Amino acid sequence: MNARPWLLGIATRLLQKHVRLEARAWKGMVADLAAQLSPDMIEQAGARLDAVRLTRRLASALRGLSAADRDTLLLYAWGDLDYAGIAMALDVPIGTVRSRLNRARRLLRTAAGTPDGEQERAHGRVDAVAPHA
Question: Of 74, 80, 111, 132, which is least packed with CB atoms within 10 Å of its CB?
Answer without folding.
Answer: 132
